[in-house]
Specification:
Length: about 160
């Protein structure tokens, strides 16, 4: 069963512990610029939750894989993660440009593409997220949770529209 990272932005406080844990595990150093997960802060007036951990969503039809001109991206059959073959990657950045959520970056030290590969099925960011804003869940559970949240928001919008009439 394929699993993916599920992020709850309501729980994230922007501590960036996930970035440190990720870069230590994958790059051998505490360097957020080499992390496979990025906590993005956005400014919005009156918004309390303004941190969003951005990470590869392990797409079913990955644009990064399709765009790679040297076929350096493939699916790990054990974890379901899309992985980059660093020996094949030429650092052209096409995969990074193709990803709609910014899940692929170019390593500043090696000039090779990198992205979340789910730490071989044991994601480091999940272990160190003390507020449990990041969870490792079966892909079908995440899809169901997203559908529930979207239907709840839609319901709230309908209620608001009714109240405005």
């Amino acid at each position: 069963m394929e699993k993916v990272l599920q992020v709850d932005i309501e729980k994230c406080v922007g501590c960036r512990t996930c970035e440190v844990a990720c870069s230590l595990k994958n790059a051998g150093e505490s360097n957020p610029t080499r992390s496979r997960i990025r906590v993005i802060r956005y400014e919005k007036t009156g918004q309390f939750h303004n941190y969003v951990p951005m990470v590869c969503q392990q797409c079913s039809n990955p644009l990064c894989k399709e765009a790679c001109p040297v076929n350096a991206i493939s699916k790990n059959q054990e974890t379901g993660a899309m992985v980059v073959d660093s020996d094949t990657c030429v650092g052209c950045r096409v995969c990074s440009m193709a990803c709609p959520i910014g899940g692929v970056s170019i390593d500043p030290a090696t000039n090779v593409a990198y992205k979340c590969e789910l730490c071989d099925g044991d994601p480091e960011c999940v272990k160190y997220c003390y507020l449990e804003a990041i969870e490792y869940v079966p892909k079908d559970v995440m899809d169901l949770d997203l559908k529930r949240k979207k239907s709840q928001r839609l319901s709230e919008l309908f209620e608001l529209m009714q109240a405005l009439r």
